[in-house]
């Protein structure tokens, strides 16, 4: 989100300080900033007892929790990232859940752990610890997780 705000702020600076023509010349900065902001704001985790999905606007990645194969954690992203939990089913669908980005971690983590117990899925130590302790709680105002 900071990158999105910075991109929009730079464009506004050009609009105010340099005028409309200069702002139009650097409009790709505005488009990049708006794209990054939309990516962040449209991201959701949706879950039920049988499925989990990560959506970004109209795009969706879904895993079937009745055929759960594994839950793993991997360090991804930059220095502020807490990594990503990957949920994979036996049909080879893989859903990334960015740790610390979504609310209601107590609910969706319990759904994942219950599904892993029911299906005998492999859960690596790091993912298990994050899911059991709720350590993936958001630090600031991130997108919602929706139980559907």
Question: Can you walk through the features of this model?
Answer:
The protein is an alpha/beta fold and 148 residues long. It has helices at 2-18, 20-25, 27-41, 105-119, 125-133; strands at residues 43-47, 51-56, 59-64, 68-74, 84-89, 94-98, 122-123, 145-147. The strands form two sheets. A four-stranded mixed beta sheet has the order 3-2-1-8. A four-stranded mixed beta sheet has the order 6-5-4-7. The radius of gyration is 19 Å and the shape is elongated. The relative contact order is 0.16. It folds into two domains: 2-39, no CATH class; 43-147, Roll (PH-domain like).
Which fold name corresponds to the CATH topology of the largest domain?
Answer: PH-domain like
Summarize the main sheet: 4 strands, mixed
The amount of helix comes to 40-55%
What's the average pLDDT?
82
| Secondary structure tally: strands | 8
Query: Given this structure, which CATH class of the largest domain is correct?
Result: Mainly Beta
Distance separating the two termini: 26 Å
Rg over alpha carbons: 19 Å
The CATH architecture term of the largest domain is: Roll
Order of helices and strands: HHHEEEEEEHEHE
TL;DR?
Helix content is 42%, strand content 27%. The chain has helices at residues 2-18, 20-25, 27-41, 105-119, 125-133, and strands spanning 43-47, 51-56, 59-64, 68-74, 84-89, 94-98, 122-123, 145-147. The radius of gyration is 19 Å and the shape is elongated.
